[in-house]
Amino acid sequence: MLRFILARLGGTLAVLILVAVMVFALTRLASGDPIALLLGDQATAEDIAQARVQYGLDKPLLTQFGYWIKEVAQGNLGQSIFLQRPVTQALAERAEPTFFLATFAVTIAALIGIPCGLIAAVWRGRLVDQIFSAVAMLGASVPSFWMGLILIQVFAVWLGWFPASGYGDPGVPFIERLHHLVLPATVLGVLNSALIIRFTRASVLDILNEDYVRTARSKGLSERVVILKHVLRNALVPIVTVLGLTLALMIGGAVVTETVFNLPGVGNLVVRAVLRRDYPVIQGTLLVIAGIYVLINLVIDLIYMIVDPRIRV
Amino acid sequence: MDQFIYVLKRLFSRRVVLLAALMLLAVTALAIFFPMFSSVDPNAIAVMDRLKAPSAAHWAGTDELGRDLAMRIVYGGRYSIMIGIATAFFSVIAGTALGLLAGFFRKLDAPIMRVIDAMMSFPDILLGISLVSILGASLWNVVLALAIVYTPRVARVVRASTLVIRELLFVDAARALGVSTPRILYAHILPNLMSPVLVQLTFIFAYAILAEAGLSFLGVGVPPEIPTWGTMIASSLQYADRAFWTIVFPGIAIILTALSLQIVGDGVRDLLDPKLRKSA
Asked: Which residues in chain B touch residue A19, judged by CB atoms under 8 angstroms apart?
């Protein structure tokens, strides 16, 4: 068992290093000299040369990479060019809306996806299965910003039930914040429920074929007990995994939705950084987001290894 | 040829798949041929007609410059569909090459797959905007960026299939007969990968159309003067509350196309392997 854990840890470390190399390479390949950008039009060639030395940009790339990694390992992601503060601080300020949005959205996705997927699997091939499967495919075909714009128009502009954008003024009560999150979370939740419906259906169908389900039925248990206790409970393990990964991907993947609703979250931070070529922010945020995803993946795998002995074989 | 007709018959025995395929055919044919035979200029500006609601003269209304929206959706289809096809094509080629190498040569497996894992740990749209910002916003750079985003997906599927095919008897037989490794890859393994790759192709086609629209919305996509369905919505954003149709109709074009592609892709997958349906 220890050997498997060590192998998995080694793999994760390799992926993390590769992620760091990619993030570093992405920003170094970018057109435009970050120093010229930083110093503005007034800078002389001499100023630029001096700044290059100061930021270590005259050193070989490998040295620069090593220096950057050392800083990152100490929790220093650099200084934002436009926000005039450390990237870690900018990230921390943006973490809250994104975290609650992602949690809210995954809850909605689970509440829609698990029951619909279960029903589709139990009545496989019937009309209800076809309808839910069609809805799942439709969900995967709708652009998130488009659905956001439609919801804003209907529920904010015409009906006035929810705010169209923002996260409320600083210091408003939490319930007010949640009110702001209803529409964006609905967009993300409904669209992601498509994946959960498909996954739940597939997972439940797998379990329905198991011997122990036949045993439970032949014992004379009611269908309700068989489905809810014997099938759903076992099917939930992979479903919860997918929900966890969806949550991880939403931390950085809610970019579009955050922009539609003008939420001051992590995705919004990245988009603005990209538009202004604020490379330290792009670099730091990408690294943190990808790192979180890799680590959540690792944790899920390790839990599986401990819970399910078949995986170790 | 008979076999091909048989496959099509089985594929279209499900009405939905037939409907989706016809829908795709119609959208593509309209986008390709309509501009050839129409004298109407989709970029003709008519200030008097700006932001007109849908009517008999303008089925889908007009946009902020008085341009006929229905016409622009047809023209926009050209670019959106082209971006979708090109992205799917490039990512399938790169992904198949990587997956084949990783699946066939044990020594290459770990290095290639760790790179793929690393690429997949970035959310799609985030990797997309970062790449476009580096490459610069142009039509082909959007295609290139999206192709890079979707390559790992194909590579994973192809590697998994290659691992299975590699162990089959006919590969052993070919090797025993002294067939060279490149020829085994090309003539014996590659043809057997076609079905999973085809399924990926249709799905990536759909994802790319959606992603292009998302990038355009964020302002890091195709330049606004190229009328894709995405740029059409993006440029009409500020008029959304007054002229809602400028948002609704291009969006419906995206949804119908993406949905049709996914239905066809799903149909092909069911046809090729009924067992795969469970793990969809």
From this structure: 118, 121-122
Q: In Å, what is the CA distance from A74 to each residue of A67, A68, A281?
A: 11, 10, 17
A to B CB pairs, distance under 8 Å:
139
Structural domain tally of chain B? Answer: 1
Report if residue B143 sits inside a domain: yes
Give the tens place of pLDDT for each residue, A215-261: 888 888 888 888 888 888 888 888 888 888 888 888 877 888 888 88
- pTM metric for this prediction: 0.86
Which residues span the domain enclosing B192? 14-31+64-272
CB atoms near residue A294 (< 10 Å): 22
Q: Do B240 and A153 touch (CB under 8 A)?
A: yes
Contact across the interface for A253 and B279, Cβ inside 8 Å? no
Q: Which of B118, B219, B247 sits opposite A19 (nearest CB)?
A: B118
Residue B40 lies in a domain: no
Query: By mean pLDDT, which of A143-152, A168-177, A179-188, B252-261 is the weakest?
Result: A168-177
- Where chain B has pLDDT below 50, the residues are 276-280
Given an 8 Å threshold on Cβ–Cβ distance, is A290 in contact with B118?
A: yes
Chain A residues inside the 8 Å CB shell of B217 = 143, 145, 256, 259-260
CATH of the domain at B73: 1.10.3720.10
CB B152 within 8 A of CB B113: no
Q: Is the residue at B9 inside a domain?
A: no
Task: Tell me chain B's radius of gyration from C-alpha atoms.
Answer: 22
Q: Per the domain annotation, does B44 fall within a domain?
A: no
**B34/A131 Cα distance (integer angstroms):** 34
